[in-house]
Write a structure and sequence with these properties.
alpha+beta; five-stranded mixed β-sheet; 4 helices
Length: 142
């Protein structure tokens, strides 16, 4: 893969989204839930090679102070080639554009297991630290 061959855009079909998720063993999401998730994202970045999605990331949050980077996905065939960093750098650039002089926003993410060093190189801190506890998750299913 050559980064020069990667194009970035902001739209993805539900089938493409679930295909990317499945490529890294994330659960697939039913169409109605996926549509809501994608439609309510504050920012979505899709990396394509020859028109095919090979990576992505989304930002969700309140649009004021709290932002959460999620669905950071790079197809296994494109991992360890700089694409993940390329995507996150573009996402961080967009986040920085949301901050006015003298303001601060909080950007969170949940790293996949053993991927913490990747995010640390991009300025993120592993929790817990200082007065910040560990992140927590809960899934609700019916």
């Amino acid at each position: 893969m050559n980064i020069e061959n990667i194009t970035l855009n902001h739209s993805i079909t539900i089938d493409e989204y679930n295909d990317l998720r499945a490529s890294v063993d994330f659960i697939t999401i039913r169409e109605n839930r996926a549509r809501i998730a994608l439609d309510h994202s504050l920012y979505t970045l899709i990396a394509r090679e020859n028109g095919r999605p090979v990576g992505m990331a989304r930002v969700v949050g309140d649009g004021g102070y709290v932002y959460f980077i999620c669905d950071v996905i790079v197809r296994p065939s494109h991992q360890s080639q700089g694409l993940g960093r390329y995507i996150i750098e573009h996402v961080l650039s967009w986040l920085e554009s949301q901050v006015d002089e003298g303001e601060t926003i909080m950007v969170n993410l949940m790293s996949a297991l053993n991927k913490e060093p990747f995010y640390e190189k991009l300025g993120f801190h592993t929790r817990p630290f200082s007065d910040h506890g560990s992140g927590m998750s809960r899934w609700i299913s019916r």
